[in-house]
Fold:
Amino acid sequence: MKSIQIAIDGPSGAGKSTVAKALAQRLGIVYVDTGALYRTVGYAVRQANADPKDPEAVAALLPQLHLDLRYEADGTQQVYLNGEAMGNRIRTPEMSMYASAVSAIPAVRAFLLDTQREIAQRNSVIMDGRDIGTVILPKADVKIFLTASDECRAKRRWAELRQKGMETDYEEVLADMRQRDRQDREREIAPAVAAPDATVFDNSWMEPDACTNALLQLIEEKYGLGVAK
Ligand code: DC
Structure:
């Protein structure tokens, strides 16, 4: 099979990672969670006590950061920062905000560009993020912009945090999510918007399995890519 590139973009809580992971498994290709890279840079900035919105302070830290994407035996992606596995440390609400802030800095986007493109050159991939279809893989075979209502997305995020043992207030999760989405959508560089040739898919009230199946069908019928049975 020729190598394929599938781009899944969209706002937070749209279910991109759940669905992209399932699709990767069904298609037998590599799943890349690009948000984890921005979260790791955010984590390093936090560790250095630097201001995530200060482009010069953040850019000055980048040469000291070595980021590595590795896959565990079960296919789970792990980001290593200077040899240390990040695990769940980058999954907190605080790190979501740090990731969003550093992701608006051009030097950070340039720093992470090659890592993302290289992995797509070496493997068939399904990559989830905000600018995969617009900037990272503009020639991707499939481009999907996954979205859902604010309330549905916030409920999912809230349940996910709760499952990880982080008790949070739903209204707070909703407000944080809206702020982060606005920041990601309105930034000057690589804003989180659908590529003109992307298929916009709203999965509000849809279970993850139903969404995965609908996207598999879309990939097969609209884009003509064979699905491994
Ligand atoms: O997908 P996520 O919630 O883990 O992403 C965290 C932040 O990283 C998100 O608010 C914006 C940024 N991001 C980005 O700018 N570009 C990407 N391709 C992925 C994430």
